[in-house]
Amino acid sequence: MNNQTTKDLNWTPYSITLEEAQQRVTNWIEPGPVTVDPTNMRAFVVHREDFVELLNQHDTAFIRMYIGIKPKEGSDETEACLSLVSAARQSEIVPDGDPEIIVDLIGEVDVMGEVFNYEIYDFSHPCPPMCDISSPLFIGEADERCA
Q1: For residues 62 and 55, what is the distance between their CA atoms, to the nearest angstrom?
Q2: Type and span of the H or E element at 85
Q3: How many whole angstroms separate alpha carbon 85 and alpha carbon 78?
Q4: Is there a contact between 45 and 84 (Cβ–Cβ < 8 Å)?
Q5: Pairwise CA distance, residues 43 & 102, whole Å
Q6: What confidence score (pLDDT) does residue 20 get?
Q7: The pLDDT of residue 105
Q8: What is the distance, to the nearest Å, from the Cα of residue 131 to the centroid of all Cα atoms in its chain?
Q9: CB 101 within 8 A of CB 87
Q10: How many angstroms separate the CA atoms of 138 and 47, rounded?
């Protein structure tokens, strides 16, 4: 089992700018020289309270998670990350919107005539190191990164 505990992590939700989120997603979609070994992003741990924080944004009915690559804090390395945003049915945001389309709520959004500010959050912690190697979904051998 992983030696890292939740006490070792910063579980405080924090928002990131749209530009930062776009760069992280671009790093994932168009990695160039920056690539991620799939075993460096087996899973992500997100604290319940962080989802609650996101869901508490006005009219949030869904959460969309974007995969990205960001600089690893205190290192020259990178790590996989999730940028999470509130989302809702288009019909709940704009008059005559399509109820089948789910739209992201990012920045200032006019919701039926009232403007709300929606944050982009990154509060994911990747596995490794936050792994459950006893999980039936942990495929492959554990190594020093997650042991």
Answers
A1: 8
A2: strand 78-89
A3: 22
A4: no
A5: 25
A6: 92
A7: 96
A8: 17
A9: no
A10: 19
pLDDT in tens, 65-88: 999 888 887 888 888 889 999 999
Q: Phi/psi zone of residue 112: left (φ > 0), alpha (ψ -120 to 50 degrees), beta?
A: left
What whole-number percentage of the chain has pLDDT above 70? 88
* Count of residues in the chain: 147
Q: How far apart are CA 147 and CA 145, in angstroms?
A: 6
Note the pLDDT tens digit of each residue in 87-123. Answer: 999 999 999 999 999 999 999 999 999 999 999 998 7
Domain ranges of the chain: 7-85+121-127
Tell me if 106 sits within 8 A of 85, measured CB to CB: yes
What single DSSP character describes residue 140? Answer: S
Question: H-type helices in the chain, by residue range?
Answer: 18-29, 48-55
Angle (CA) 89-95-100 rounded to 5° is: 30
User: pTM of whole model > 0.90?
Assistant: no
pLDDT reported for residue 12 = 58
Who contacts 92 (Cβ-Cβ below 8 Å, separation ≥6)? 59, 61, 99, 111, 112
Amino acid sitting at position 31:
P
